[in-house]
Amino acid sequence: MFVNDNAGTNGIVRLIVLLLLAAITAGCAQTPQHAKCEQRESCSDKDRRMAWWREAKFGMFIHWGLYAVPQGRWKGEPIPGIGEWIMYRAEIPIPEYEQLAKQFNPVKFNADEWVRIAKDAGMKYITITSKHHDGFAMFHSKATPYNIVDATPFGRDPMKELAEACRRHGLRLCFYYSHAQDWHEPDAVGNHWDFPKEKGRKDPKEGFDDYMDRKALPQVREILTQYGPIGLIWYDTPFRITKQQSERFVEIVRELQPDCLINSRVGFDLGDYGSEGDNRIPDAVRPGDWETPATINDTWGFKAYDRNWKSVDDLTFKLVDIVSKGGNYLLNVGPTAEGVIPKASVDRLRAIGKWMRVNGESIYGCGPTPFRTLIHRCTTKPGKIYVHVFEYPVVDKKLVIRYLKSDVKKAYLLADPWRRSLDVIREGDAVVIPMPDTAPDPVDTVVVLEFDGQPVIDEPASAPTASAVAPELKRH
Ligand code: JFZ
């Protein structure tokens, strides 16, 4: 049909506007995580700041402090609960707990070794406790002498050594800082055994602003100025603080290191990304930027008698499960008071690293599964689906991927260095791939499906739910 000039011009203008809009939206939506962009800043600012973290996917959490000295026991008695809470659980008076500093001499601490352990596991960042709830600074602080350089025979600043080692090995260093709870301070939150007025209180803490001005903010300033660029500040347990107080903890980071990320536990939903409840993995894909902080056994800080180490299978499954749902995995180790990461942890991290060196492509920078049904855990890159096969042998030596409408251009195993094409058979709504007799990877064999453009998924509303069809969920 012949279109008159005017309409044609309008049409072209409209088309250009639409294309521009589409391009802008596509730019922002490249990763679906743009959803939480704050109104104050443009989407691209947030995306730019988040980029390294979205790529990294896997980080090391380290809980290390004076609590590693008693390692879960006080006066000969095992204290239940997580190791770094021993002061609280055993209601240890401040003067007694302070004595631990005199015994803290981690002569075996070697920053390069720790960073290498993280790097060999395939982790891209390290988040370490610069100050936990016990109030003891694991870095050189001028705000209070209650810090590792001034109060221990060790006399070194491990955060400085870690910062240098991270720079050498190309990892990002990030700091945990307990901003609200500080059991060493009468004006902070938490210590009700030395300061009985604290017991049972629910209202915002009187005097908290003084503690902030005297200790917390000066120390956050120190960790943001003494150690070079910091990847993120991991605040925790924002109990009984006001929105204004949370905002000041945000502002100081923005002022000193505008690119430094902040986790949601700063309070009042002011962070850049969400930290899930500890050790919790959502049931389904969760939009936005989030991470699961989790321990490798049942404690964060070292406890001598906690030997409930998760298996390599379990840890690898959790990593894939989290990435397939759109999150990051922040996996914790608790070094000893000598400065050693327990061998059981190192062994497991090394095994994950072995898997990551072959299969890291299916983790780093990956988006979540395109499927609503989690029959297989899948991760994605543009034009690619990585199908993770934990259950081997697959049924009838075949991998069946249902509800896949698009045709697969090429399928291959990440475990195959030659990336030889696998047969792909179309059977109704499913794609069927005959698999080798024995598992190419005993932990998780990754099958890559390549497509022309983005794959189209067609899942009927009646498709079975995740729990009904994911045997690996039951296994772990
Ligand atoms: C906190 C700390 O109290 C703990 O010692 C450790 O550092 C951990 C990583 O974080 O504990 C929490 C905080 C939040 C939740 C659970 C435990 N939560 O939201 O479920």
Topology:
Elements: H1 5-29, H2 43-56, E1 58-62, E2 73-74, E3 77-78, H3 86-89, H4 94-103, H5 111-120, E4 125-131, H6 148-151, H7 158-169, E5 172-177, H8 208-225, E6 232-235, H9 243-256, E7 261-262, E8 274-275, E9 290-295, H10 312-324, E10 327-333, H11 343-359, E11 377-381, E12 384-389, E13 398-402, E14 410-413, E15 425-427, E16 430-434, E17 445-450, H12 466-469, H13 471-475
Parallel strand pairs: 1-4, 1-10, 4-5, 5-6, 6-7, 8-9, 9-10
Antiparallel strand pairs: 2-3, 11-12, 12-17, 13-16, 14-17, 15-16
Helix pairs in contact: 5-7, 5-11, 8-9
What is the CATH superfamily classification of the largest domain?
A: Glycosidases
For the sheet with most strands, the description reads: 8 strands, parallel
Strand content: 15-25%
Mean pLDDT over all positions: 90
| Alpha-beta content class | alpha/beta
Principal-axes geometry comes out as elongated
What's a quick, concise take on this entry?
This protein has helices spanning 5-29, 43-56, 86-89, 94-103, 111-120, 148-151, 158-169, 208-225, 243-256, 312-324, 343-359, 466-469, 471-475; strands at 58-62, 73-74, 77-78, 125-131, 172-177, 232-235, 261-262, 274-275, 290-295, 327-333, 377-381, 384-389, 398-402, 410-413, 425-427, 430-434, 445-450. It has 476 residues and is of the alpha/beta class.
